[in-house]
Amino acid sequence: MAKSTRFIVYTVLLIAALFYLLPMYVMLTTSIKSMDEIRNGSLLAFPAAISFEAWGKAWSSACTGIECSGLKPFFWNSVKIVVPAVILSTMLGAVNGYVLTKWKFKGSDIIFSMMLFGVFMPLQVVLLPMSQTLGWMGLTESVWGLVTVHVLMGIASTTLFFRNYYVSIPDELVKAATLDGAGFFRIFWRILLPLSTPIIMVTFIWQFTNIWNDFLFGVVFSGSDSKPITVGLNNLVNTSTGVKEYNVDMAAAIIAGLPTMIIYIVAGKYFVRGLTAGAVKG
Amino acid sequence: MATQKQSVSQKRFDEWLPKLVVAPSFILSLIFIYGFIIWNGYLSFSASRMLPNYEWVGIVQYQSLWDNDRWWVALKNLGIFGGLFIGVGTVLGLFLAILLDQKIRAEGALRSIYLYPMALSFIVTGTAWKWILNPSFGLEHLMQSWGFTNFTFDWLVNSDKAIYTVVIAGVWQSSGFVMALFLAGLRGIDDSIIKAAQVDGASLPRIYWRIIIPSLRPVFFSTIMILAHLAIKSFDLVMALTNRGPGYSTDMPASFMYTMAFERGQLGVGAASSTMMLAMLAAIVVPYLYSELRGYKKNG
């Protein structure tokens, strides 16, 4: 390729990079500016004096409606929802994928195809029946209600991930183990699971980001003490009492995005694989 | 004799064990998918208002849905948003993927930069863009302070333009992901085809236009499917960026459903609107799943 074309290619790629980085830059710099500087300065200016006051406020004393305890309680709610929901749905997906590939039975393919639709179904369809069901189960006001919903709605995608991964593991491994007298669980535990690290990572990241970033279920099914971080952030930003503090809003947005960003940075390879696997194969 | 009997029942148990293990999650997910679809469908034909009411009233709720001006706004917005979100997202993603495919030095870093928005929730994204697009401090203010005093950019608070700000934030969020899909597709293309075309004297843009892009058809198919599916479901971004406003000018089917079912006490209309969303989604997903599953059979 000619030198001039290469130059253009690099320029375009760099401009694109600036476009993608702009919101992150603006969020970060705004969050460490004072309100005076925000009012008088420019959007892109680097802060004259760096202050983490807005971060402290966003975390523990900003108002989200009538309550003024910052994002802290919401953050911990999200942790309490995400941890059990991710572990449970990943475990169920692993076992389901194992049965669907190594212990196929009559009708298992049909059930799998039917479950696949659950990955795509608009969740609005389940909102009304689900809120009734959670009410009957007495789970509407607790984090366990959201854990239940996320596990139920996550089974389809976790099963899909493990199913697609286990298909590529030779059946002969399982057959040989059966001849040696190994049972159902022993084969799973000793043969399949030790080979599953990559797909466990993918499923874990997929479920973690989806559940952490969920807003719809959070806003519909949570009670006053079980609202997740996305709902907390939205309430904080839309609270109209008092002077609007953009630096606090931006700090809050970063706090809400931090856990998934950390995963993206630490396990980027698996993150991309999860995205594309979830996309191309359903 | 006794041991033989035991081994028979043992064998039967072994046969049933896998089924028993998956039964709960199969049954639960089928109930929570299809059972709830039917339940929600029934609600849409019921007299439900503030509370569920299982009296059958026929298509009354659908009539009031289609008579509702707000539902038409939501559909029109879905058309605008969906069209631009899919179109711009696909073109931008493909364009970046092609550029990145030219043996670029910092490819890994650039790829990570393009893709990171996908890790963030739409609520975070919406909050950030709401600040950037805010007329009094954001882009408009910035351009004016740079000397472009006539520059106006008040789309966020302009009810005719606000839906386009949702497009900006939506494209920002997901085009990197489209880029990743196309890049994977490009890497899967056999180099020798391109080499052969080059030997024949074809220029690089021509090779892309005539050979490479056409061979990416399956990737286009998945990409458009996924983006359409995201567009129909999009709720968080609207709620965070514009909160359906100004007025209800940026309402979309998903936020319409939420408003009716959980704010206005119109459960029946809400159920009817979600049934319509299901129909739209099924129209694009069922053919896709069908072809994917046929693929599974072919590949064993």
TrEMBL record, chain A:
The UniProt record lists the keyword Phosphoprotein: no
Domain ABC transmembrane type-1, first and last residues per copy: 75-267
Membrane topology per record: Multi-pass membrane protein
CDD domains: TM_PBP2
Keywords linked to the UniProt accession: Membrane, Transmembrane, Transmembrane helix, Transport
Primary site of residence: membrane
Subcellular location: Cell membrane
UniProt keyword annotation of Transmembrane helix present: yes
Bilayer-spanning residue ranges: 7-28, 81-99, 111-131, 143-166, 187-208, 250-272
InterPro entries: MetI-like (IPR000515), MetI-like_sf (IPR035906)
Entry similarity comment: Belongs to the binding-protein-dependent transport system permease family.
Name of protein: Carbohydrate ABC transporter permease
Gene source species: Leeia speluncae
TrEMBL record, chain B:
Gene3D superfamilies from the UniProt entry: MetI-like (1.10.3720.10)
Residue stretches making up the ABC transmembrane type-1 domain: 75-290
Keyword line: Cell membrane, Membrane, Transmembrane, Transmembrane helix, Transport
Transmembrane segment boundaries: 20-42, 78-101, 113-133, 162-186, 207-232, 267-290
Cell membrane as UniProt keyword: yes
Family named by the database record: Belongs to the binding-protein-dependent transport system permease family.
PANTHER family to which the protein is assigned, alphabetical: ABC TRANSPORTER PERMEASE PROTEIN
Name recorded for this polypeptide: Sugar ABC transporter permease
